[in-house]
Design a protein that fits this description.
mainly alpha; LipidA_mod_glycosyltrf_83; five-stranded mixed β-sheet; about 65% helix; two-stranded antiparallel ribbon
Length: about 550
């Protein structure tokens, strides 16, 4: 019990440091984080909690739970960006502790697995990165794991009604987080229960009947929003939320198309740094299908992994809800190693790699000054690399007395590595990801009743929340339409994006800001109309 309390304190401390540093060193990340904040901001302005809007148009791509939670944070603390950025980290923290609870149910006699699982999950680079990003996937991961927890408790409690209700809440919460895809994370393992459970005399008819009822309960929870929202949003919105969100992404796969093996190819990267942990490999060789907990994790992870692999549209964060299953398997493998002396230097290889990474980060500015790779690399302070090198050396020479010590050392180093790499990155390039200067300039022009247009195919709302804009920006995708708009709004301004090399634009715009790999400028309509050569510079 003392070990569990100690591990919990370390998890909370590392999570707190990671979250605090993220809030401090980086802005809302465009275009995803800024877009979701913009949707919540427009709902807040409209005082409309049913239908999301983006730039004055109905936004049907995502369900509303994240937007509701953002507005709840503003209701409690006032409108700001830090409170909405705590939502994903809080779901991550809840998922970390819930993963330990799931481990305790799967292997009640192996307390060490319960201790190791959340530390391993937090130590995954992939998990730690997405823990601080304001997106829907961490919420989905929590509700998926809550559903998994409910299934296990149903078995333990002889199909108790309260756990059927909890499963319904998990499904409903998942639907409101990211749509019906929550069923893909819960249904396969539930349907495969006869394989992983193998309990004589189990009431399978009650199991499958209860599963149907829980799905219907989750649907009712989601429909409590979807029906009134569909009525308020109109026919096109109804079709989008009832048919378009999941069918478009999972069946038609209209974007992000990649080959079927892509997830398999990147899986080793998602499991770093634990693949550098030597005892893990020895423990994996000892695992067998006779272990019902292993069967459960495989029934949970493999069908979902295959399903996502067969869908052509792929994004790395789609696999985030599967990471708790991976952490459970890794923790169970580590528990197979019982010899205490095998843990003393088990973390040495990982610390050597962390130290090498820190040394590269520390030497990078000097090497860049000598070889002139990219100018911004010289802006990175060697302090970031020095911090990682010192941490790796100190943790590397410290002997681990147990598996928990070894896991904890790697988890600490992993969090420090992520902080230092992100710190160096944003020290060099934070201005290219901070939309606030441009957004505040746009807000000032709107306050003067100037019309604002965005020249491009799509505006993602990256300036709306940062500038607290209260008016829509006109999106003009074509150059001829842009000139027509400029003639009708001669006192207006146009947001244009261009490369550094386009010196003509640089010489004519009064306000320009770096944005990712390009620049963003506010171009006066009068200047556009008075300089015919700008047409060639603006035409793609």
């Amino acid at each position: 019990m003392h070990q569990l309390r100690s591990a919990s304190l370390w998890i909370f401390l590392l999570w707190g440091v990671l979250t605090t540093v993220s809030l401090t060193i980086r802005p809302l990340f465009p275009v995803d984080e800024t877009r979701y904040a913009a949707v919540a901001w427009e709902m807040w302005l409209r005082n409309d909690f049913l239908v999301p809007y983006l730039n004055g148009e109905i936004y049907s791509h995502k369900p509303p739970l994240l937007f509701w939670l953002m507005q709840l944070s503003w209701w409690l603390t006032g409108v700001n960006d830090w409170s909405l950025r705590l939502i994903s980290p809080l779901f991550s923290l809840a998922t970390l502790f819930l993963s330990g609870a799931v481990a305790g149910i799967l292997w009640p006699e192996r307390k060490r697995v319960e201790t190791l699982t959340p530390l391993i999950l937090l130590g995954l680079f992939f998990w730690a990165i997405y823990s601080t990003l304001t997106m829907f996937d961490m919420m989905l991961a929590f509700f998926a794991l809550l559903g998994i927890y409910s299934l296990l408790k149903l078995v333990d409690s002889d199909l108790s009604l309260k756990y059927w209700a909890l499963l319904g809440v998990a499904i409903g919460g998942g639907v409101l987080s990211k749509g019906p895809v929550i069923l893909l994370h819960i249904l396969p393992v539930a349907l495969l229960a006869p394989w992983w459970l193998k309990t004589a005399g189990f009431r399978w008819q009650h199991w499958y009947f209860g599963l149907i009822i829980a799905i219907l309960a989750g649907a009712v929870i989601a429909l409590c929003w979807a029906i009134p929202a569909g009525i308020a949003g109109g026919e096109a919105y109804r079709k989008a939320i009832f048919l378009g969100q999941t069918s478009g992404r999972l069946v038609e796969s209209f974007a992000h198309q990649l080959p079927w093996w892509w997830y398999l190819e990147i899986l080793p990267l998602l499991l770093l740094p634990w693949l550098l942990w030597k005892p893990l490999w020895a423990g994996l060789r000892k695992l067998t299908y006779q272990d019902s907990g292993i069967r459960f994790c495989l029934a949970w992870a493999i069908p979902v992994f295959i399903a996502f692999s067969l869908i052509s549209g792929k994004r790395i964060h789609y696999l985030l809800p599967l990471m708790p299953a991976m952490a459970l398997i890794l923790a169970r493998a580590a528990d197979e190693i019982t010899e205490s002396e095998r843990w003393e230097r088990a973390h040495s290889v990982a610390m050597a790699v962390f130290g090498l990474l820190g040394a590269v980060l520390m030497l990078l500015p000097g090497l860049n000054d000598a070889y002139h790779w990219r100018a911004e690399l010289s802006l990175i302070s060697p302090v970031w690399g020095s911090l990682l090198v010192m941490s790796a050396v100190i943790l590397g020479i410290t002997k681990a007395k147990s598996a928990q010590d070894s896991v904890l050392y790697i988890c600490i180093a992993s969090v420090i590595a992520l902080i230092t790499v992100c710190g160096g990155f944003f020290e060099a390039k934070s201005d290219r990801y901070d939309t606030r200067p441009a957004a505040q300039a746009i807000a000032a022009l709107m306050a003067e009743n100037r019309a604002i247009a965005f020249y491009g195919n799509k505006y993602h709302g990256q300036y709306h929340f940062a500038g607290r804009l209260k008016q829509a920006i006109t999106v003009v995708p074509y150059i001829d339409d842009l000139y027509d708009w400029a003639k009708q709004h001669r006192s207006g301004y146009i947001i244009v994006t261009y490369k550094d090399s386009e010196t003509l634009l640089l010489s004519l715009v009064s306000r320009h800001y770096p944005f990712r790999s390009q620049n963003v400028s506010l171009l006066s309509c009068r200047v556009l109309l008075a300089n015919p050569k700008l047409r060639a510079a603006l035409t793609p």
